[in-house]
Amino acid sequence: MYQRILLAADGSKNSIRAAQEAAKIASLIPDSIVEILFVADLSKIKNEVLHSQNHEEIEMKRNQKLIPVKDLLSEKNVSHQTKIITGDPGPAIVEYANNERVDLVIIGSRGLNALQEFVMGSVSHKVVKRVQCPVIVVK
Fold first, then answer.
1. Angle at CA 36, nearest 5°, toward 78 and 83?
2. Integer Cα distance of 85 and 18 in angstroms
3. What is the Cα 35 distance to its own chain's centre?
4. Which residue from 27, 58, 84, 104 has the highest number of Cβ atoms inside 10 Å of its Cβ?
């Protein structure tokens, strides 16, 4: 069964919807844990550094983005932990999921149109193609 559930989250509305699904699944499985993974996008780190006083402030802002997700899981009495890593979100999520051997990945869909997805590729699409476990994409 799904003991280790990886929830890719960035604090967006889509990741909160994904957290709702993670809570539903985890609440049905005794001793399961939801690992909230936040990937600090390398393309945005420069901007974070320029607008912050120090490293602690950057970490605090990243954690604040995850408060709604953590609160939702806590309200549903779901065991969870948070991991913040840096990298390109799609490949970083895939690498983490495959290296940590999670049982299930849950990720929100950003809702790109067909042209945007073709040109840029979506994080959820990259994850679905490359991760070595089941994936749920929440719209």
1. 125
2. 19
3. 8
4. 104
